[in-house]
Design a protein that fits this description.
Chain lengths: 259, 243
């Protein structure tokens, strides 16, 4: 009962065998972690960490808020970029392409530092949260524009021809035919991107944004502990990313069923 | 309808689809364009429908010339109905919404009027019970009848169909061709690209054989099928009618 049914059989795996297999796999991971720490002779001490629990909660909430703000802005950035990329005015089109390639080709860390110490400084912008959200949004927006572009281009030629045949204008074709379909098709990838934003937000600690990672590092420094701080950190991110990735799977399945 | 194509050529990049095609049809109710695949039938229909522009030449429909201005062509497309081979419904809309979309967005119908009109058409094609289904939930023949209903929504005088049954099995083909025959009897003008010789023989009053980017022969179906003038038509028909 620990094996998936053969490809050509009609049986589904039973709930019981799913649960049992899942528990076994989880146990294997737990044992591995346990022995690694045991071998390293690590002495756990949770008492000092517990005092700082509020700091974890605050950091976790800050990370969540920053990520949500960045997701919202990066959706706008991504949509704007893809529209500019489809523009017939070539200099505009190439600027969008250069932006996407630069962002995708350089580390986020460098982008954050550049934006904070060079761009924000020269613009006289001193709210580091605004700069942080901007950096994450510009970074993620480039990826989202690629997701959108792929989804738009996946809408078939026959659809465009039909839209033309029934007399829709260029704008109406995008509004009623291309965007609704492209958006649905990009949902799974967008959910994945949301998970990326949450994890990437940890890099904002470099410019002293009081988010989850920075707070965990502070607690670690204050209590001279290490993994007592970093383990809750990892779990805190998993609480956010696991449901999102699960959701992406579900959406993907549903879309595949519908088309 | 009267159709006049004068010296039409159409190239896609370096590929020539039509080369100096001339066609003159007068007072036809149903014109069938037939011929070998890749011969230029569908291209001819797309030019007649104003979806594409000829590289050279002039197109006259009932005496008025199709201009090359995009806005003019869109107005022209709005005045006719067009149906393609397959997959021409929008998959994210229900059958009903597929029909109401052009009515509300292009032809200025109110929401209620468009729904009433769509339901009337669906009832006529025995599709009313499927009004709220998406194309993926309907059979190929049902989808194609919805597509015809959509093309008829704004009551065009002229309907153009590009191989409307090529993706369908024989039974669905029959159900779609029946609908088209009814339309011809019901005072619609129809131009159809088809491989269904039986349909061309039975329903069309004019047939044009198009091959190698030119018109090989035109005439009423009994003349084309019983007594073709050109050797090409004779060979083509003997091949396609053999089985």
């Amino acid at each position: 009962m620990l094996f998936a049914p053969q490809e050509d059989s009609n049986q589904d795996e039973s709930k019981k065998s799913q649960l049992l297999s899942f528990l076994l796999a989880g146990l294997a991971f737990s044992l591995f972690t346990y022995f690694v720490f045991a071998a390293a002779d690590y002495h756990w001490d949770w008492s000092s960490i517990y005092e700082y629990r509020q700091k974890f909660v605050n950091g976790w909430l800050a990370s969540l808020l920053v990520s949500l703000a960045a997701l919202f802005v990066s959706l706008l950035v991504g949509a704007a970029t893809v529209i500019i990329q489809k523009s017939r005015f070539l200099p505009l089109r190439y600027s969008a392409t250069i932006y996407v390639e630069l962002v995708r080709g350089t580390p986020l860390l460098v982008q954050i530092l550049f934006l904070f110490y060079v761009v924000a400084d020269s613009l006289g912008l001193d709210n580091r949260y605004v700069v942080g959200v901007a950096a994450l949004s510009l970074f993620s927006g480039a990826y989202i524009s690629e997701i959108f572009r792929g989804a738009i281009e996946s809408v078939g030629k026959s659809q465009l021809q039909s839209a033309k045949a029934i007399g829709l204008t260029h704008y109406q074709t995008y509004r009623y035919v291309i965007f609704p379909q492209a958006l649905r098709r990009s949902l799974p990838a967008l959910a994945g991107q949301m998970a990326n934003i949450i994890k990437d937000s940890s890099l904002l600690s470099i410019i002293a944004i009081r988010e989850f990672t920075l707070n965990a590092r502070e607690v670690s420094a204050l209590t001279f502990s290490s993994f007592e701080s970093y383990l809750p950190l990892a779990l805190g991110y998993l609480i956010l990313t696991l449901p999102i990735m699960r959701m992406a799977r579900v959406i993907e399945k549903r879309i595949r069923f519908e088309t | 309808m009267n159709i006049e194509l004068q010296g039409i050529s159409k190239t896609y990049g370096s590929a020539r689809a039509l080369e100096g095609l001339d066609l003159s049809i007068e007072d036809s109710k149903c014109l069938a364009l037939i011929g070998p695949s890749g011969g230029g039938k569908s291209t001819t229909l797309r030019l007649l429908a104003g979806i594409e522009k000829p590289t050279t030449g002039e197109i006259l429909i009932d005496g008025s010339s199709l201009s090359n201005a995009d806005e003019h062509l869109r107005e022209y497309r709005k005045s006719i109905g067009i149906v393609f081979q397959a997959y021409n419904l929008f998959p994210h809309y229900s059958a009903l919404e597929n029909i109401t979309l052009p009515l509300t967005k292009v032809h200025g119908y109110s929401e209620e009027d468009s729904i009433e009109r769509a339901r009337e058409l669906l009832r006529r094609f025995h599709l009313l019970e499927h009004a709220n289904k998406k194309p993926a939930e309907l059979s190929g023949g049902q989808n194609q009848r919805v597509a015809i209903a959509r093309a008829l929504g704004h009551k065009p005088k002229l309907l153009m169909l590009d191989e409307p049954t090529s993706a369908l099995d024989p039974e669905m083909t029959a159900e779609v061709l029946e609908v088209i025959e009814e339309l011809v009897e019901g005072q619609k003008d129809v131009i159809i690209v088809t491989h269904q010789m039986g349909f061309a023989k039975r329903v069309a009053d004019q047939v044009a054989i198009i091959a190698d980017g030119k018109v090989a022969e035109t005439g009423p179906p009994n003349q084309i099928f019983e007594n073709p003038e050109s050797n090409f038509t004779r060979r083509f028909l003997s091949r396609v009618l053999k089985y």
